[in-house]
Specification:
This protein is α/β, with parallel strands linked by helices and 360 residues long. It has a single domain, classed as Glycosidases (TIM Barrel, Alpha-Beta Barrel), CATH 3.20.20. It has helices at residues 5-17, 19-22, 46-52, 69-82, 94-97, 107-118, 136-139, 145-162, 187-192, 195-207, 225-239, 262-271, 291-308, 329-332, 350-359; strands at 56-61, 85-88, 122-129, 169-174, 212-217, 246-249, 252-254, 275-286, 314-319, 336-337. It has an eight-stranded parallel beta barrel with strand order 1-2-3-4-5-6-8-9, surrounded by six helices. Helix 12 (262-271) links the parallel strand 7 and strand 8 (275-286). Helix 8 runs parallel beside helix 10 (195-207) and helix 13 packs parallel to helix 15. It is globular. The relative contact order is 0.11. The structure holds ligand G3I.
Length: 360
Amino acid sequence: MIHGLRAQRLLGALCLAIATACGSGPTEPDDTGFSPPPSNPDTIPLRQLAQQRGIRIGSAVDAGFRYTGSQGTLFRAKLAREFSMLTPENDMKHASIHPARDTYRFGPADSLVTFAEANGMQVRGHTLVWHQQLASWLTNGTWTTAETRTLLDDHIRTVVEHYKGRLVAWDVVNEPFNDNGGMRSGFWFDRLGEAYIEQAFRAANVADPQAKLFLVDYNIEGINAKSDSAYALVSRLLARGVPVHGIALQGHFQVGTVPPTLAANIARFAALGLRIHIAELDVRIQLPSTTATLQQQANDYRDVFAACLTTTACEAVVAWGLTDRESWVPSTFPGWGEPMLFTGSFDPKPAFFAIYQLLK
Ligand code: G3I
C-alpha cells in the first residue's frame, strides 16, 4: 500500500547508493509480488524504477484496455509491465456508473479494478463529483435542495461502498474552480453552494474510511490565482476537520509550459499535511511533431517527475492514457496530439526514456 512510501523512498535512496545490492532485473517481482512479463527485455519496468524512488507511476485507461486480439494483448501487457497504478478514465464517472436513478453499472469499472489487483496495481477512483458527464436523469430532473443533498449522498455512498477496501484513493471533487479562482458553476454548486464539497468528502470518508480522499483540478500545478484558491479551500476544509487527504494536480500541459513553480506549489500543499498526486499528466504537441518538440516533451515529463521527487508527500504520477492513439487530446484540441509516453504502436518515445533515466 502507498502508506509505506516513506520507507520505500529511503530504501530507494539506499538502492541508488548500492545499486547492485538491490538488484533491478526486468523480471524481478516488485513489492506486490507481481513479476512483469519480459515484453521489453531491454528496459527495467518503469514501475520498478519508480518504486525504488518511492513513488507510483500510473496510467488512466478504458477504451484501449478493451481492444480485442493482439492489440488488446499488447496494450494490457504494456500497462501491467510499466505501471503500478491505474485510473479508470471514464468508467467511474456519474453518467457511466449511475445511468438511472436506481441503476448502477459497475461492470466496466469492475473489470479494470480486477485487472489492477491481479497485476499488483493500485487504483485511483475517478471521480465522484464533477460538473461534467452527469447522467441526464439527474441533470434533467427537478429536485429540491433536500433531494439534491440526498442524491449526492446516495451516489457517493453506493459507489464508494462498492469498491470499499479496494481503492487506494478517490478523486472526490473534480474541477471545482474557474481559472480566475472563483467557484465553478455546475449542477452541484448551483444547487448546494460550496457546501457540496464538504458533504462529498464526509460521505466518501464514511463509506470507505481507508481510502485517501483528493480534491482535483487543472491549471493548479503552478502558483497562481487558481491554485491559491485551491490552497485556501483545502485549508478551510482542514480547519473544520473535513477528511481531505490530498490534492491532485491534473497536469494537462502544452509542450514547453510546465510551470517553474511546480515544486514550490507541491511543497506548500505538502506543508498542510496533504498527499500530492500528479493525476492526469499528458504533454500535447502541435502536429506534426518534430525532433525538437518531442525532446521538449521529454524534458517536460522529466521536470514533472523531478518536481514530484522533491518531497515524500508526492506519492504518484499518473499519465492520462497509455499510447498516443487513445488520448483525448486530438479530438479536443484539433491540430494537437501525441501527448503520451508511447506511440500508437507501443514504441517508447523520448519522454519514456527521459523518465527512465531520471528514475534510474
Ligand atoms: O459514453 C459514450 C458512449 O456511450 C458512446 O458510444 C461514445 C461515442 O463517442 O461516447 C461515449 O462518451 C465519451 C466518453 O469520453 C467515454 O468514452 C464522450 O463522448 C467523451 O466526451 C468522453 O471524453 C472524456 C472526457 O473526460 C469527458 O469530458 C475523455 O475520454 C476523458 O479523457 C476526459 O478526462 C478528463 C478527466 O475526467 C478530468 N480532467 C480532464 C480530462 C480531460 O478532459
